[in-house]
Design a protein that fits this description.
mainly beta; single chain
Length: 210
């Protein structure tokens, strides 16, 4: 009996020691350290889209080259003329604008003689596109005046004043929302006493939109 009690006591002692060791080795699990949070990705930079069809007033200026188509019956040798233009307009719709334009043609050489001329017209513009490149058609009317002398050739075109029609087209290239450049091509068709002074003009200019 004593031997059995001793055996049981030894067994309990061994069981208690094993349980304590197991608890020490496999106690509560250690919490793992949290990894530092990754920094958020920088937001994508979105450039604002250009408003190339900006509505409102604008001013412009540039050079012009006038190719004479004078009614001189081919009997007078006439030179073309350089010059300049200024303009002021208002774009009231993405596809439409109205514009006042002044062109000064410095010297048509009639050999002998010369003609200095200018035109002042009101023009409507219809834009086919409204993006960075904007082709357009134009039509207008106004006044043309020529000053100078036709020399001694009665067949040469003579300077005079009169009503004129103007029509053509061009291209406006948008640099910024406020600045654009481009060429323009137009036919100036005078009537009345100035009907000798037909011309085709090629101009290149810049505009500032307010």
């Amino acid at each position: 009996m004593r031997k059995e009690l001793l055996t049981a006591a030894c067994a309990l002692s061994l069981l208690f020691g094993a349980t304590s060791a197991f608890a020490g080795a496999y106690g509560e699990p250690v919490e793992a350290e949290e990894a530092p949070a990754a920094s958020p990705a920088p937001a994508a930079v979105v450039e604002p889209e250009l408003d190339c069809a900006k509505l409102g007033p604008y001013l412009g200026l540039g050079g012009v080259y006038a190719v004479e188509l004078f009614d001189d019956n081919g009997s007078a040798r006439t030179g073309n003329s350089g010059g300049y233009h200024v303009q002021a307009g208002y774009r009231f719709h993405p596809h439409a604008a109205v514009e006042a334009r002044f062109e000064h043609y410095l010297d048509f050489d009639l050999d002998p003689g010369h003609i200095e001329a200018y035109s002042a017209t009101i023009n409507g513009k219809a834009f086919l596109l409204t993006g960075r490149f904007q082709p357009y058609a134009l039509a207008g009317m106004g006044f043309v005046s020529g000053n100078g002398s036709a020399g001694n050739n009665p067949q040469a075109a003579h300077p005079s004043n009169g009503f004129a029609l103007r029509f053509g087209g061009g291209l406006e290239a948008c640099i910024t929302e406020h600045i654009s450049v481009g060429p323009e091509f137009a036919y100036l068709l005078p009537t009345g006493s100035a009907n000798d002074l037909d011309m085709f003009t090629v101009s290149l200019g810049a505009q500032y939109k307010f």
